[in-house]
Write a structure and sequence with these properties.
The structure is a homodimer. With about 200 residues, chain A is an alpha+beta fold. Chain A has helices at about 10-20, 40-45, 65-75, 85-115, 120-125, 130-145, 160-170, 180-190; strands spanning about 1-5, 25-30, 55-60, 60-65.
């Protein structure tokens, strides 16, 4: 049985819930109360020494980090559809996962966490100007790709799209306007039309 | 022919040079002068819209991002040795690549870039306290794993070790002392003994 340790409003946790829904995988969700410090207990740190969500437990195999979990679920349960298995195809997915973990996380996601007043150092210590600059880089690089392609890493949807989608689609909550990025906007609507799509948190 | 666009002092570029050396792969190195802005020309941005190094060109297939390049080289040229191909093994490597891209990059690597006075916003706008806190998280998580295991993601060296190694081994240049992390130090010496190892930049 797949168990997901989850924060309901987290874009990183939503990535996993979205892929679980798209893959139509049965799973149990265990909500963690970060405000009550449930992610910093000794018990939780045994699951994830970074103290972050999401964490996945698949029949006793525990994985932390949203990117690692996306790769695992796609590879284990998604056939070749969500994560290409040739070297170049795999690496093209990795490029976008890296953009999401760098400019995405420290730009789009951090701007949102700061604006929402999340109770952690990642949100509190954010430099809004830096977040905006990184977010703009992310959006420009995404726009350039999506102006000429429907999907980020291949001719079909992959976990590259699932990883980058949430914090782009929720950018407005961090006061980042994606209206100037027409191809990015069209792509968010394309994702929202996927069968078994799960609405944003 | 493999061509690597390279910054000589960059830990991210060194990751690729190290793996190329360990895999004994013939390659050409093209040094880029970031101080002269060679990474922001229209020509370079066609190779990498993020304007970062390293970039790899393997017979015309161009890849940006050090993580994506490590995955590509390991998968294409490393057999099953450097990147496990089962879902769980692959995901366990991804966990450490993610730690490196997050706490590693914004902690260890950024502290070093700031201390070295690198001429870009990533270095200039660094918050030294935040860098130190992220670096400590990275080192603690690495120490916990390495206290009980020789390598990060498997029973043998993988690209997880190659990705995390440079900015840990060069932490002192960012005024981060790794002396309290005994298992991490032993691991850096283990890596430096690998056949065809390439010295730190």
């Amino acid at each position: 049985m797949i168990k997901l340790y989850n924060l309901p409003r987290s874009g990183n946790c939503y990535k996993i819930r979205l892929l679980l829904a798209l893959l139509d995988l049965e799973h149990e969700i265990i909500d963690i109360d970060a405000k009550a410090g449930e992610n910093t207990t000794a018990e939780f740190l045994r699951l994830n020494p970074r103290g972050q969500l999401p964490v996945l437990d698949d029949d006793g195999e525990v994985l932390w980090d949203s990117t690692a979990i996306l790769v695992y679920l796609a590879d284990r349960y998604g056939g070749d559809d969500w994560l290409p298995r040739d070297s170049l195809g795999l690496a093209r997915v990795m490029q976008w996962l890296a953009l999401e973990q760098n400019e995405g996380r420290y730009g789009l996601a951090r701007a949102r966490a700061h604006a929402l007043g999340n109770p952690n150092a990642f949100a509190r210590d954010a430099n809004p100007e830096e977040c905006r600059a990184l977010a703009m880089t992310a959006l420009q690089v995404l726009e350039e790709r999506l102006a000429a392609n429907d999907w980020l890493a291949a001719d079909q949807v992959t976990i590259a799209d699932i990883a980058c989608y949430p914090y782009v689609a929720m950018a407005g909550e961090g006061n980042i306007d994606i209206a100037p990025f027409a191809a990015v906007q069209t792509w968010t609507r394309r994702i929202a039309k996927l069968p078994r799509y799960l609405p944003l948190p």
